[in-house]
Write a structure and sequence with these properties.
alpha/beta; Rossmann fold; 2 domains; eleven-stranded mixed β-sheet; globular
């Protein structure tokens, strides 16, 4: 099995518990030389991009037999043996558009449920100063509006009670996380290809990056878009994070606690760029918060339950503060 086939097999295993559709789509891609050849033209090594490109095409124009399997395109057919041939025919018919998307787009997932872990992390580093936050891999900046969402931690409320977006988080284990974060007085983001919420194609791409059989995630996105319209989008600067970050840090208010944060971002960096980020932050008086796959910052295997490790620290050094569901939803606070 080639490396790209293994990428899709691994993704299908992780997705299996949450998305029966994507588990079967990945299985179909693994068994199809033509689909693997298409995937090889992707600008990213991860499986997400081809899956999102296919989904985006169906959201743009769902007049195809494949749409029967995609709830977001009006389908209600369970994955079966007809999925693979329908997928192959679809990708052949729309190959030119898919190749264009794979060459020009990047995975953009503002999974706002992860904010349930970010809020306690921000609270854990509070030092009495207001927060100036900088998100790496900000996409549309929706997670940068975390303080405008409502939260329910097993009956413990936090955030803005009247927010259109309400996030429920199950607490695992005996510890209750801190839920009183500092106020945000300045916010910015950096992304190599930021999403413009005024652009219909960009917003469709945000929807396409969500898994099509997870209605709750799509509902959260729509609520977060409403919050962004009410409170104004976060300014997200286009470019390489390591090149732009020093200047963005310098632009933050001098009397604020500057915090650089990210979730599900560094997997796209590679080890050398992660090490460079660590060196950069070690030279700055800033807080660093990361929610990433276990292998990225904590050196752990992912284990049988897909999860992210929450880390926080200063001076380029991080300590583990918790585990969370890879799409949010639960938090184990250390």
């Amino acid at each position: 099995m080639g490396p790209r086939a293994q990428d899709f097999r691994n993704f299908g295993i992780v997705a299996g518990s949450d998305s029966p559709l994507y588990a079967r789509v990945c299985e179909a891609i693994v068994g199809s030389p033509e689909l693997l050849k298409l995937a090889a033209s992707s600008s990213e090594p991860q499986a997400n991009l081809l899956l999102a490109a296919i989904h985006a095409e169906l959201l743009r124009d769902g007049d195809d037999e494949l749409a029967a399997y995609y709830p977001t395109a009006g389908g209600d057919r369970a994955p079966d043996d007809g999925l693979r041939p329908a997928l192959e025919r679809f990708c052949e018919r729309r190959r030119a558009r898919l190749e264009s998307t794979l060459a020009t787009r990047y995975t953009q997932t503002n999974e706002t449920s992860r904010c349930s872990a970010l809020l306690p992390a921000f609270a854990s580093v509070a030092d009495g100063r207001p927060l100036a936050q900088i998100e790496i891999g900000a996409s549309a900046g929706l997670n940068g509006l975390w303080d405008h969402y409502a939260y329910d931690y097993d009956g413990r409320a936090a955030g803005e009670a009247d927010s259109p977006l309400r996030l429920a988080c199950e607490l695992i284990g005996p510890n209750v996380p801190p839920l009183d974060p500092p106020p945000v007085v300045w916010r910015a983001g950096i992304d190599r290809s930021p999403v413009d919420l005024r652009d219909e194609d960009d917003v469709r791409w945000l929807r396409a990056c969500l898994w099509p059989d997870q209605a709750a995630r799509h509902a959260r996105l729509e609520a977060a878009l409403q919050v962004a319209r009410e409170h104004g989008p976060v300014e997200v600067r286009r470019g390489d994070a390591l090149e732009l970050l020093p200047g963005v840090i310098d632009a933050a208010p001098a009397d604020a606690l500057v915090c650089v944060f990210h979730t599900a971002t560094l997997i796209y960096f590679g080890e050398e760029k992660v090490a460079e980020l660590r060196r950069l932050l070690a030279e700055r008086d800033v807080v660093w918060i990361g929610g990433e796959a276990p292998s990225v910052l904590a050196g752990e295997d992912i284990g049988p339950t897909p999860h992210f490790v929450m880390t926080a620290g200063r001076g380029g050094e991080l300590r583990q503060v918790g585990h969370m569901g890879h799409h949010g939803g639960w938090l184990e606070w250390f």
